[in-house]
Amino acid sequence: MRRFLIVGLIITALILSACGGGDTEPTPAPAEQPTTSTAEQSTTAPAEQATEAPAMADLSGKLTSAGSSALLPLIQLAATQFQQMHEGVEITVTAGGSGAGRSQVCQGQVDIGNSDVPLSDQEKTDLNCGDAVETAVAIQAFG
After folding, report:
1. The overall pTM is greater than 0.70
2. Which of 35, 52, 60, 101 gives 88 a disulfide partner, CB atoms 3.0 to 4.6 angstroms apart?
3. Maximum C-alpha span of the chain
């Protein structure tokens, strides 16, 4: 189930990164203010530049996802983008409905079970979900 959580977090990160805007114009720098010279000099060293986080290690393996047909386009897009970033990863995404996704993940048939609604405590017991971890990735608005 730890893998389930990690994959959910990765998909969440992909979705959030896809939401970032890249078409905005840069903010102009403020005009320089005139400065006056003083006898005092600063003795502090310049601040260190921020470093980027290390890139994710090259990943490989297979991952299966099933469930909500309403979330299918979003999950397919996230899977496609993730596979483009990590050529060694194969992700299979299928629909079938939230109930199918919940039961298949609880039975260990798929790695990720997509659902429009969270599992109730009774469903966790009935489906024998054990220590399944739920992660909200998206909210689906129904019309």
Report:
1. no
2. 60
3. 77
